[in-house]
Q: What sequence folds into this?
């Protein structure tokens, strides 16, 4: 959500700068992943939504649930979120943190949806071409969707390259519809 | 109905398929996160530009108006009922454009330039962005050629020049549109191309206007841009800019054009609606902070440009021709309140205004122009010499009449000179009346005003003044046709012309009845 992103930005920036200074990007990434996964768990959701607990004790219990996965810095992060009653933002903070981290590491997650499974050679060729285009290390996540009929759709963040037969047919339909 | 030719249709389809560009290209995509009253908020679209066209599924377009850090606010140009949260939207890399060119003459189009008159595709080969920066100082030429409206009161007292912005302002139903339509009809003589932009009006009213224009053969050189009351607010907001771009085509190609915005009050309302929905802070009368700029940037594009600009614009195809775009914006006041926000803004932007008064209208004076408060700040230097000489006396007579009108009820106690002035003023006021759809040529207007100036109306009863005028003009047309044509063409004013007019009017009064 647009508004959540705005609120989460200072937290994500702070965490990212801290992690970069301590050279602990991977640690933080791991901690945020655990926190996000935990907050998606039904009893934890109920805990976080419960109106009769103050935010600081919610943060305390959340840290307890995570146990050893969370170090001191992680617990302090939770407390500072709780101080402003922003525990609901963990997922958003993680998303922005990962975006910043990817930028820092010059890596790009690309989703490739194709009509048929990609062969290794195709996947490598695609990786090479995309890395030339974006100038970044490419991590491909491929998925098969037969609804595309043929070709593939490549999605990298906001950028979308639609080379599927379905997309072409749609374009044709729109074009003919204007007659 | 036109007969459908099957081979023709498959040809069209074949061409369409051949011409279709299906290259896969990288596009900036975003996701709709909120839909409300024709406004959508889109997450993503990091590359969106201000005013860029945003494409939705199903060939629907929008315009990016709010660029925020995490979202883009887009107004939808069309039906937004089918949009839902989670749908995708794509950047097109194009600023909103409309078709322009000669193909649009005689057509009725919507605010995006799509034909809505059922006469088939436009086949316009050119497009132009709807928002353009007005020509600068270097590109401009002074306003010194007239636009004849064909109404005695306007052409004599508030003359309009090519490239001028003259505001028409009054309450509803007093005759603003009537003046504008007469102005279009009268351009049959001048060859000025016209664009009529209808904003927030009833479709039936627009249809009536189009029919009237067709009846008088005025659609041949006119484009109607219609954004009716049932069109979404963004369409009403952009319609004037679209119409302006269509008129600018002629200006930039060394021709003259006249654009009428009917009316800008409704455009400001539409813009206020959009702005409030986009959560921009409301100011005076709940209008957003940039409502002045909304109108000033539009009206600034009405201009007269010099030959060098035209030559540069057309890459040397048109040489030695100046171009102009004259604007007649219309503002509707509420209960005569001209000090409301939008009227004061537009009054200060334009080069003069024509005030129409409810009281004058109700007392039978039509057009109901108030000669005291109506002004034209630049048109005087554009008037043809013939009209300029003659109109001076008319303005004076009406000014004196206004001053004395309060005493008119004591007519019996007044001295002769005052009474004569009052009587003269009464006749001139009567002479300013003119029927709708009956614009007059320069020679016709000049002749009847000359008769008034020189006192030929003194022995004509007030209620016979218009009959006298009609008879005089038909006499002049039949007996002095050459003289009248000469004045229409050259507009010269000299002793010969004065002598001919005196002789003709005297002879008319001696020999004719009315």
A:
């Amino acid at each position: 959500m647009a508004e959540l992103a705005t609120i989460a930005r200072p937290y994500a920036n702070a965490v990212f700068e801290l992690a970069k200074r301590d050279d602990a990007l991977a640690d933080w990434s791991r901690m945020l992943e655990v926190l996000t996964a935990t907050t998606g768990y039904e009893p934890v959701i109920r805990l976080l939504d419960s109106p009769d607990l103050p935010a600081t004790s919610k943060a305390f219990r959340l840290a307890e649930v995570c146990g050893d996965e969370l170090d001191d810095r992680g617990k302090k992060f939770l407390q500072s979120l709780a101080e402003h009653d922003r525990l609901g933002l963990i997922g958003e903070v993680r998303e922005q943190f990962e975006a910043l981290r990817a930028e820092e590491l010059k890596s790009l997650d690309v989703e490739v949806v194709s009509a048929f499974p990609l062969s290794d050679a195709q996947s490598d060729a695609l990786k090479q071409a995309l890395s030339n285009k974006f100038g970044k290390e490419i991590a491909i996540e491929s998925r098969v969707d037969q609804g595309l009929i043929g070709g593939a759709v490549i999605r990298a963040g906001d950028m979308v390259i639609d080379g599927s037969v379905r997309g072409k047919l749609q374009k044709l339909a729109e074009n003919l519809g204007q007659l | 109905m036109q007969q459908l030719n099957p081979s023709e249709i498959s040809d069209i389809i074949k061409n369409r398929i051949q011409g279709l560009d299906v290259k896969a290209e990288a596009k900036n995509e975003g996701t709709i996160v909120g839909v409300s009253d024709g406004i959508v908020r889109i997450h993503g679209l990091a590359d969106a530009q201000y005013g860029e066209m945003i494409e939705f599924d199903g060939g629907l377009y929008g315009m990016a108006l709010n660029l925020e850090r995490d979202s883009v606010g887009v107004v939808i140009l069309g039906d937004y009922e089918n949009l839902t949260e989670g749908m995708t939207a794509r950047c097109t890399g194009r600023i909103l454009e409309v078709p322009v060119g000669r193909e649009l003459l005689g057509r009725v189009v919507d605010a995006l330039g799509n034909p809505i008159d059922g006469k088939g595709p436009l086949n316009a080969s050119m497009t132009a962005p709807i928002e353009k920066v007005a020509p600068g100082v270097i590109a401009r030429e002074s306003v010194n050629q007239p636009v004849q409206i064909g109404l005695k009161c306007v052409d004599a007292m508030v003359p309009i020049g090519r490239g001028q912005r003259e505001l028409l302002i009054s309450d509803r139903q007093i005759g603003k549109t009537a003046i504008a339509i007469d102005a279009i009809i009268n351009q049959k003589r001048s060859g000025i191309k016209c664009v009529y932009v209808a904003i927030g009006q009833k479709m039936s009213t627009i249809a009536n206007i189009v029919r009237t224009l067709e009846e008088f053969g005025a659609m041949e050189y006119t484009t109607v841009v219609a954004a009716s009351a049932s069109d979404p607010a963004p369409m009403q907001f952009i319609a004037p800019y679209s119409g302006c771009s269509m008129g600018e085509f002629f200006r930039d190609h060394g021709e003259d054009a006249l654009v009428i915005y009917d009316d800008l009050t409704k455009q400001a309302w539409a813009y206020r609606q959009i702005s409030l929905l986009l959560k921009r802070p409301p100011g005076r009368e709940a209008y957003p902070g940039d409502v002045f700029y909304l109108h000033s940037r539009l009206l600034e594009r009405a201009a007269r440009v010099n030959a060098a600009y035209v030559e540069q614009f057309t890459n040397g195809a048109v040489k030695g021709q100046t171009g102009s775009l004259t604007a007649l914006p219309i503002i509707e006041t509420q209960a005569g309140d001209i000090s409301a926000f939008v009227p004061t803004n537009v009054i200060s932007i334009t080069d003069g205004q024509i005030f129409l008064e409810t009281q004058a209208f109700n007392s039978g004076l039509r057009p109901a122009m108030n000669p005291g408060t109506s002004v034209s700040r630049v048109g005087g230097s554009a008037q043809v010499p013939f009209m300029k000489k003659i109109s001076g006396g008319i303005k004076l007579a009406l000014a004196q009449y206004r001053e004395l009108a309060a005493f008119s009820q004591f007519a019996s106690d007044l001295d002769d000179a005052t009474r004569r002035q009052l009587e003269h003023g009464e006749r001139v006021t009567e002479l300013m009346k003119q029927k709708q759809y009956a614009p007059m040529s320069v020679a016709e207007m000049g002749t009847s005003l000359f008769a008034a100036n020189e006192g030929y109306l003194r022995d004509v009863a007030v209620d016979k003044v218009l009959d006298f005028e009609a008879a005089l003009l038909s006499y002049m047309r039949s007996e002095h046709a050459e003289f009248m044509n000469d004045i229409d063409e050259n507009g010269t004013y000299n002793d010969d012309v004065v002598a001919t007019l005196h002789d003709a009017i005297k002879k008319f009064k001696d020999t004719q009845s009315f």
